[in-house]
Amino acid sequence: MTKQNAKAYWKENLRYVLILLTIWFLVSYGAGIIFKDALNTIRIGGFKLGFWFAQQGSIYVFVILIFVYVRLMNKLDKKYGYDE
Amino acid sequence: MMNKVLLIEAMSVQNWTYILVGVTFAIYIGIAIWSRASSTKEFYVAGGGVSPWANGMATAADWMSAASFIGMAGIISFAGYDGAVYLMGWTGGYVLLALLLAPYLRKFGKFTVPDFIGDRYYSSTARVVAVLCALLVSFTYVAGQMQGVGIVFSRFLEVDYNTGVIIGMIIVLFYAVLGGMKGITYTQVAQYCVLIFAFMVPAIFISIQMTGNPVPQLGFGSEMNDGSGTFLLDKLDGLSTELGFDEYTEGSKSLIDVFAITLALMVGTAGLPHVIVRFFTVKKVRDARKSAGIALLLIAVLYTTAPAVAAFARTNLIETVSNQPYTDVPQWFKKWETTGLITFIDKNNDGLIQYVADESQNELVVNRDIMVLANPEIANLPNWVIALVAAGGLAAALSTAAGLLLVISSSVSHDLIKKVYNPKISEKGELIAARISAVGAVCVAGYFGINPPDFVAAVVALAFGLAAASFFPAIVLGIFYKRMNKEGAVAGMVVGIAIMLFYIVKYKFGWLDDTMPEKSEWWFGISPEGFGAVAMVINFVVSITVMKFTKAPPKDVQEIVENIRIPSGAGEASSH
Prior knowledge:
The complex is a heterodimer of chains A (84) and B (576).
Chain A: H1 2-34, H2 36-39, E1 43-44, E2 47-48, H3 49-79
Helix pairs in contact in A: 1-3
Chain B: H1 2-10, H2 13-34, H3 40-45, H4 52-63, H5 66-79, H6 84-108, H7 113-120, H8 124-156, H9 161-211, H10 216-219, H11 232-242, H12 255-270, H13 273-276, H14 285-321, H15 331-338, E1 342-344, E2 364-366, H16 370-373, H17 375-378, H18 383-421, H19 427-450, H20 456-469, H21 471-480, H22 486-509, H23 531-548, H24 555-564
Antiparallel strand pairs in B: 1-2
Helix pairs in contact in B: 2-9, 2-18, 4-9, 4-14, 4-18, 5-14, 5-18, 6-12, 6-14, 7-8, 7-21, 8-9, 8-18, 8-19, 8-20, 9-14, 9-18, 9-19, 11-14, 12-20, 12-23, 18-19, 20-22, 20-23, 21-22, 21-23, 22-23
């Protein structure tokens, strides 16, 4: 029973990690590097969007991603009885 | 009251620097005395009861080195868009740390990174390989910090460079040897406050001056304050192309190289032992996750401000000097000229400063460190702000140096002496060994600070490359791939490190050929700075391939893996 519990917990954890790392990849390597030139045609104030993602936006998203993970995992720990 | 105001205005930069540096040093020493370590547990992991906020602040100070504080804005200032590799690379690694490493390593609950590698791969070979990597990475890194200390002292306090390094050594020695991780943690908390204040105050002043917006992150994308209605970045792009430089927001590195460098720095960040060990100091697994978030939030304050400072400083520099008569240059220009950090040669004898991209016509060479160090002077800020930069630079350098020294001393006293050569050593004996190795490490670091190897800059690329090529894959596979065995992990680490060393020696130092190889010979067009990404992939491939042909790890090791995946019952870090 506890083994199954642990397995299910791990599976859900991996799903969260996968989703969050996909976003991590998209904002930095995607928006900030690969699609930078295309995004640079869009402007927000004085910023070209690709440049903004590379030097500002990706960092903000990184911070948000970690706090989202913290929240999700705290909930998950509780659901499976691993909180303390 | 009036007299006081006059006094504050009249005090010289140097007096202010002495006061601010003196007060901050006194605080660090006070904390060291208050937080002496009395057991190995306190020495290695601060007793394991550090709160997530304190650990987040300590991690941020630990992470932000002399290079982040003094160097980064300057590098971006001259690299434009390409500077993003450092911004994303040195922050994105924390996402990997929080999601893939920190919680599990905390649950594992030992003192050092080689501890994990050695136990997870049930092999003292793996442990020794990991210790050697940790030592190599930390020594290369710490030399740069002691240099930073020497530079700040010699530029701001007119103290001899070597004396500066020695003063820095004594301070670090004091709190690292006395307090171990406990002393380092709480001094780093204080150092974070000093360095972030010192970085933000000039940045806010300059942002207001140039764009009228007090938030540098927004001022960066605002219109110039000169009534022209042009956006700052457009102005800077225009000025850059006019002088023949690349457009500021475009950059000149190839896409694949930007990609590879960013990846190598991210993965290297997540694999640096002095960052990882910080997460052994918190109480619970959930605290490890949370403090990774807090650390990145606090780091992001500086990292999102730095590119703004870079753009402000670059615009300011071009506008102040380009095509201006040399006789009219401001005071700061002359001052930094005497230090050799700004050089002007009037090649065409017209008395004007030609600052252009074309080497044959360019008359001005500016050391990039100036962009932060001289920024307050360029913007005419009060003397105390200028002095603050010195205190901030010292805080950044010392905090990082201390974190690295702890990794070095625990590698020797715990991983080598206790775990390999003399497992019977008493707790007291180990603590003495830890302190002696800390003293030894400070002396070696000071030696490198005073006699810097001429390849220090190259060596930082190597530190990240090595961390990416060795620790990151070994740890991630150790957690996420239960079947990964010692044969696979050791083969992966050895091949990863070997290929990284080979690439750096060949393409960065040029030692294997008569002349430095051309950029066109780089594999896949990837620079030595970015090669860590390739070496990491090679490590993963080698590890998994070798693992397929060798037998699965023993049952008890597989149980360790199952156990670290569950957050509860972490207990406190222990050596058994």
